[in-house]
């Protein structure tokens, strides 16, 4: 079981293949195992890496509230790359992991070859209501355990399409969800997710990003739509893909389509053919 010591904690990771590094960052409700289909597919072409973030055993589960700020997750990703001897990589992040990937790109732009942000940005729309809901859910976890929080995730509208079209895959996802540490479930909800800036507060930083970016969302993943469009509208070399009849866990719901779209993006980046023009210029002038 590969472990690195980075940013003062242990981080468990899985690595497949060789070549250009491609790192996957998972969402709140799962861990590195959610990227299995991607590790198998991209490991044939890249050095594909998925890791368990802080709070997801066998990675360290810090007990101290001071260790759960959003910047710690960004620093964890930097520490992972450092520990593995990786200077630059393609970064893919989904939901919570997408926010980490995006903010890592802002903090360390020279280390990101290409960026894929998937279904990120919950808490951007109707922020005060979202914050109140997150704090209430965290309080309930602290007092009564994870049952109510997990039920809220399972019953979220953006999860319904997954349950309907792929019951077997949905059961596998529930297995990942129910492995979530109660400590991490509470502290991530109460501290980390509340601490991070909403995507629509990052406009100035996004405008400075020069790396190619693919933003992906499902048409049923309603909480992410505003944020995904905001990234597309503000990052100079960002494109937006919306998958039909797809919800939040896109890489699990539609793994073949997801893999193909990401592969097409990475191939364009590696060939220097993504973002060779800005949206304000005539793309026909690119050679």
Overall description:
This protein is an alpha/beta fold and 287 residues long. It has a single domain, classed as 3-Layer(aba) Sandwich (Rossmann fold), CATH 3.40.50. Helix content is 46%, strand content 16%. The chain contains twelve helices and eight strands. It has helices spanning 36-42, 70-83, 96-107, 127-144, 147-155, 157-165, 167-177, 182-195, 203-207, 222-234, 250-253, 255-270, and strands at residues 3-6, 9-16, 21-25, 47-51, 89-94, 112-118, 213-218, 238-243. An eight-stranded mixed β-sheet has the order 1-2-4-3-5-6-7-8, sandwiched between helices. Helix 2 (70-83) packs across helix 3 and helix 6 (157-165) crosses helix 7. The longest helix is centred in the middle third of the chain and has 18 residues, at 127-144. It is globular. It starts with a strand and ends in a 17-residue tail after the last helix.
CATH superfamily: Alpha/Beta hydrolase fold, catalytic domain
Shape: globular
Order of helices and strands: EEEHEHEHEHHHHHHEHEHH
Major beta sheet, strand line-up:
1-2-4-3-5-6-7-8
Instruction: Give the radius of gyration.
Output: 18 Å
Q: Can you tell me the number of structural domains? A: 1
Could you say what the CATH topology is called?
A: Rossmann fold
- The CATH architecture: 3-Layer(aba) Sandwich
Terminus-to-terminus distance:
47 Å
Please report the number of helical segments: 12
Number of strands: 8
Low-confidence stretches: 282-287
Report the CATH C-level class.
Answer: Alpha Beta
Q: Main sheet, how many strands, which sense, barrel?
A: 8 strands, mixed
Give me the secondary-structure category.
alpha/beta
Tell me roughly what share of residues is in helical segments: 40-55%
């Amino acid at each position: 079981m590969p472990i690195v010591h980075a940013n003062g904690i242990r981080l468990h990771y899985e690595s497949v293949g060789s070549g250009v590094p491609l790192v996957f960052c998972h969402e709140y409700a799962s861990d590195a195992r959610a990227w299995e289909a991607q590790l198998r597919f991209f490991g044939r072409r890249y050095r594909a890496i998925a890791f368990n973030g802080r709070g997801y055993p066998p990675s360290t589960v810090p007990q101290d509230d001071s260790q759960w700020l959003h910047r710690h997750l960004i620093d964890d990703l930097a520490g992972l790359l450092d520990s593995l001897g990786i200077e630059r990589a393609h970064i893919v992040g989904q939901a919570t992991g997408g926010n980490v990937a995006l903010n890592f790109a802002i903090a360390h732009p020279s280390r990101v070859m290409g960026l894929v942000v998937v279904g990120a940005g919950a808490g951007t729309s109707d922020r005060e209501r979202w914050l109140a809901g997150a704090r209430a859910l965290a309080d309930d976890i602290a007092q009564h355990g994870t049952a109510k929080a997990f039920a809220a995730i399972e019953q979220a509208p953006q999860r319904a399409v997954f349950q309907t079209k792929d019951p077997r895959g949905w059961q596998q996802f529930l297995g990942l969800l129910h492995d979530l540490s109660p400590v991490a479930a509470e502290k991530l909800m109460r501290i980390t997710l509340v601490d991070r800036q909403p995507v629509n507060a990052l406009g100035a930083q996004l405008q400075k990003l020069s790396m190619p970016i693919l933003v992906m969302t499902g048409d049923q993943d309603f909480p992410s739509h505003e944020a995904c469009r905001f990234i597309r509208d503000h990052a100079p070399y960002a494109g937006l893909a919306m998958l039909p009849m797809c919800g939040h866990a896109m890489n699990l719901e539609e793994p073949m389509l997801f893999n193909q779209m990401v592969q097409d993006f990475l191939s364009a980046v590696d060939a220097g053919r993504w973002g060779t023009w800005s949206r304000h210029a005539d793309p026909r002038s690119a050679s």
